Protein: methylmalonyl-CoA epimerase
Organism: Nitratireductor arenosus
Amino acid sequence: MLGRLNHVAIAVPDLAAASAVYRDTLGAKLSKPQALPDHGVTVVFVDLGNTKVELLEPLDAASPISGFLAKNPAGGMHHLCYEVDDILAARDRLKAKGARVLGDGEPKIGAHGKPVLFLHPKDFAGTLVELEQA
Amino acid sequence: MLGRLNHVAIAVPDLAAASAVYRDTLGAKLSKPQALPDHGVTVVFVDLGNTKVELLEPLDAASPISGFLAKNPAGGMHHLCYEVDDILAARDRLKAKGARVLGDGEPKIGAHGKPVLFLHPKDFAGTLVELEQA
């Protein structure tokens, strides 16, 4: 069922500073910052060739990553996003296996315009997992 | 400078349980567990097609991931490993940019038999970064 790693999301308190680290210190290729008001974040994509890192900065205190940054003020890895072919089939399989899908269990449109679901970190080795229909 | 994402390492308290989650719940392809006494861990590789997740369980209390698990008993994302072509050139560039290389700054032979270095999480958006010469 599990497909490619779509991205690793890193929550950061200062997107300009984190972008400078990836661009200037590590020499990576970066996108321009994109504000995604529906998701409460501004994002910069780091192109790694085989996958990407997404640097996420909260748009405001109500952002889904604000709580994480309150606990991790320097930033840190926030979630992993895996691709699946069929998100409804994936959800039903996960629920049948006893894994918890966050929210109401219905896919939402994610930051890439595709259906996504988030899974409970306690059921996945302490890691917040996003599934995205590829 | 920055190449592909070689792996995402997830530290886990129970490798058999985490493997079952990735194999049975998520339907991923897994390697057999390999004990790496030089690194203080037993590892299972999760094949994602474009990159991999490494599930790491400490071999004993002296393992480099034991402290992390004491703070994160359910497990969690431990580090990201990026590939570079030339690890000494990468190190020199990073030091010139003011980034801190952990340990004595000399590459060690990593879990894949290749030279690696670890970088200080505080200099990389709260993320422990491993560089591996590809």
